[in-house]
Amino acid sequence: MAASSNLANRQSDDRASSASRRERRSAEIRDRLFRSSLRLFAQKGFAETTVEDITEAADVGKGTFFNYFPSKDHVLLAFSDMQLAKLEESVEHFRNTDQPLHEFLQSLTVRMTEEPLRNPGLIRALLLGYLSSNAVREVMTEKQMRALALHTKMVEIAQSRGELRTDIPAIEIANVFRQTIFGTLLMWSLTGDATLRERIRSALHLVWSGIAPANLEAKAREQHWKEEVR
């Protein structure tokens, strides 16, 4: 009985180990396809990149792509999901810490614009891809509404702490913040120089001067001046 039980346990462990290997392998292939897609979108453009291009770059069979993504468009949606997850995690972190909002905004924008978004070609490809079909636009509109809700929650937290003006609705401030970052990314994508973080820092400083209470805005101006002097 003991031998039979040990054999059953080993077989169970072997099946679990095999399933774990398959899951890791599947996740690794999906990530290769995802990263290869983004790289090619940046290099060739969204419309010009074919599924065959992607599978060749990822070193997998052409049919393998469709095991993970129904279409090229779904790579863009997966990218949006990744960004949303980052934003949700960041806002939750902000809720549970006492980090000043102006510091949090700087760290948030750096995180949201880290690789692979620091490639101007990818920004352009993403914008074209999001406009490629009604189906994609509809899904992206829903995702953007979720992002707006998260940014609005961030603003509400800051208002409750006295870090932002309360005479402006939170959703309006959130929209201004989002439009500022989006516009900065768009304009930067046209030049592709090395000034992305500086552009964002400058834009956020200007936004902060309009949404912070007078006492905090004065402190921010003083800190900004010190940084410029250094």
Helix content: over 70%
Overall pLDDT confidence: 85
| Helix/strand order, N-terminal first | HHHHHHHHHH
Strand content: under 5%
Radius of gyration: 23 Å
* Overall geometric form: globular
Class derived from helix and strand content = mainly alpha
Count the DSSP helices. 10
The N- to C-terminal Cα distance equals 77 Å
What does this structure look like?
The protein has 230 residues and is mostly helical. The chain contains 10 helices and no strands. Helix content is 80%, strand content 0%. Helix 1 packs across helix 2, helix 1 crosses helix 6 and helix 6 packs across helix 8. The termini are far apart.
Topology:
Blueprint: H1 2-44, H2 51-58, H3 65-68, H4 72-95, H5 101-112, H6 120-130, H7 134-160, H8 170-191, H9 196-211, H10 214-229
Helix pairs in contact: 1-2, 1-6, 4-5, 4-7, 5-9, 6-8, 7-8, 8-9, 9-10
How would you sum up this structure in a few lines?
The protein is an all-alpha fold and 230 residues long. The model has no long low-confidence stretch (mean pLDDT 85).
Question: What would the keywords be for this entry?
Answer:
globular, mainly alpha, 80% helix, 230 residues
